[in-house]
Amino acid sequence: MALRIDDNTEKVIDQFIENGNLTTGALVEFTGLSRPTVTKRLDRLYAAEHVEYLHEPTALWRLVNDPRE
Predict the structure, then answer these.
(1) Could you tell me what percent of the chain has a pLDDT over 70?
(2) What is the number of alpha carbons within 13 Å of residue 45 lying toward its C-beta?
(3) Which of 8, 38, 41, 45 has the smallest CB count inside 10 Å?
(4) Does 29 fall in a domain?
């Protein structure tokens, strides 16, 4: 599945690069994007196997690889 990298996806990926593992809530706070927007980007990144869920109860995510590389 080809992943479209738009400005909002860039913001999410940049936060992983800067901060490491992050919760959905932290991504919302750090990017300034809405929760639905962040969730949609995470879902797309997950489907393309670029992020993984580390801890479901806290919605902790980890960037596996940067799709921009």
Answers:
(1) 99
(2) 28
(3) 8
(4) yes
